[in-house]
Task: inverse folding
């Protein structure tokens, strides 16, 4: 079996890390999986066996939500044409049995349309994958209509997978995504990983045998994470507590240097961790921005967490964090109030009861293989045998 996953990756590492988790869950013995990404840093992340990357010339998202070339000195139109031609040629040759598209049914700025046209002729099944939350509901609906997304789903996609729990946020109803999506949607549950065993050698920066507590700060790729990282780095750590900031590979080098200069005596600044799993296992508390992958990792481990969400150019992280706060799963601090004092006060406030993971569906990764099998068993009439899925 051949599986392809596409994401545009214009801001941060979230799309890449989510697609890596999906690829790992779906890639069985003998399968070949091609992960198409807009991040040249993708190679820093170990891929599961049978998975490889195709990196496209990158886009960057500006503060107004627009897109332009990240590195290549060409016009946005030339970049779109280059990416579209590369996508078509690569997917035509790879000839996947299934293509899983992240967020944009037609690709960013329609760049996926030529590839979708040839894949339809080859009989490739297409699945649209969406985060639990996209943005403010009225804005999502306006962009969805303007991009012709409902028609694209109706004409080109077998299913729509939403990587969330409908009880937390019902994306289809909140954002009025339309009948075509409603007919095809499967709420997979959040893509939570099982907690791994903690070892003393889990990280060269963490001494699991020291008896000291660990407060961990994560800011995703770090591209817009400096303000939170600095607030945490300067915050006073509680007694017998060490702090660790993971800056992320996209944080500018000058900002990482400033973080190190400003960090308190018991705070270590780490540039990058390809896999934060073991450090998260070791952490006692977590301060993070509220991106999808970090939230899944924190909830799966039932960590006490403070979310300081991004609020521009989208409020996706704020909506997600507030939904989880209402269920008693995390604490939330608006970024306008995030400084060394407020972060330090939260760290000093002591442990509280964390609601168990059973209160939220985190079994998405386990559920994906059955959902994929369902798609591949479509008959010519489009009928399938029933398979359990999140309602």
Result:
């Amino acid at each position: 079996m051949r599986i392809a996953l596409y994401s545009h990756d214009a801001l941060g590492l979230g799309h890449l890390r989510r697609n890596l988790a999906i690829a790992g869950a779906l890639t069985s013995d003998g399968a070949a999986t091609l992960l198409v990404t807009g991040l040249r840093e993708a190679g820093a992340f170990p891929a599961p066996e049978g998975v490889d990357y195709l990196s496209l010339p990158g886009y960057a998202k500006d503060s107004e939500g627009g897109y332009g070339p990240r590195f290549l000195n060409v016009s946005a139109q030339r970049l779109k044409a280059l990416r579209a031609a590369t996508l078509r040629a690569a997917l035509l040759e790879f000839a996947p049995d299934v293509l899983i598209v992240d967020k944009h049914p037609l690709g960013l700025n329609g760049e996926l349309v030529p590839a979708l046209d040839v894949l339809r002729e080859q009989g490739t099944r297409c699945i649209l994958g969406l985060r639990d939350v996209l943005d403010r509901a009225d804005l999502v609906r306006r962009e969805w209509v303007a991009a012709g997304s409902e028609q694209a789903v109706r004409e080109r996609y077998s299913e729509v997978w939403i990587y969330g729990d409908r009880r937390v946020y019902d994306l289809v109803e909140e954002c009025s995504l339309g009948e075509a999506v409603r007919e095809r949607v499967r709420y997979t549950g959040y893509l939570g990983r099982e907690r791994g065993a903690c070892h003393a050698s889990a990280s060269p920066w963490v001494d699991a045998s020291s008896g000291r507590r660990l407060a961990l700060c994560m800011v995703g790729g770090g591209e817009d994470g400096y303000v939170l990282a600095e607030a945490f780095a300067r915050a006073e750590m509680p007694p017998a507590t060490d702090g660790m900031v993971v800056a992320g590979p996209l944080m500018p080098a000058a900002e990482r240097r400033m973080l190190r200069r400003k960090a308190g005596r018991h705070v270590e600044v780490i540039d990058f961790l390809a896999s934060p799993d073991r450090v998260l296992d070791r952490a006692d508390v977590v301060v993070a921005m509220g991106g999808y992958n970090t939230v899944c990792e924190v909830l799966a481990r039932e960590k006490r967490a403070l979310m300081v969400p991004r609020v521009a150019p989208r409020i996706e992280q704020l909506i997600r964090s507030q939904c989880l706060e209402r269920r008693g799963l995390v604490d939330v601090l608006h970024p306008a109030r995030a400084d060394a004092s407020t972060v330090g006060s939260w760290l000093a406030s002591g442990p509280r009861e964390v609601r168990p993971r059973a209160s939220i569906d985190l079994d998405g990764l386990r559920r994906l293989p059955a959902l994929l099998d369902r798609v591949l068993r479509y008959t010519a009439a489009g009928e399938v045998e029933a398979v359990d899925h999140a309602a």
Notes: Residues 2-192+363-376 form a domain with the Rossmann fold fold (CATH 3.40.50.2000). The CA atoms of residues 84 and 110 lie 8 Å apart. Confidence is low (pLDDT under 50) at residues 196-202, 383-391. The longest helix spans residues 76-94.
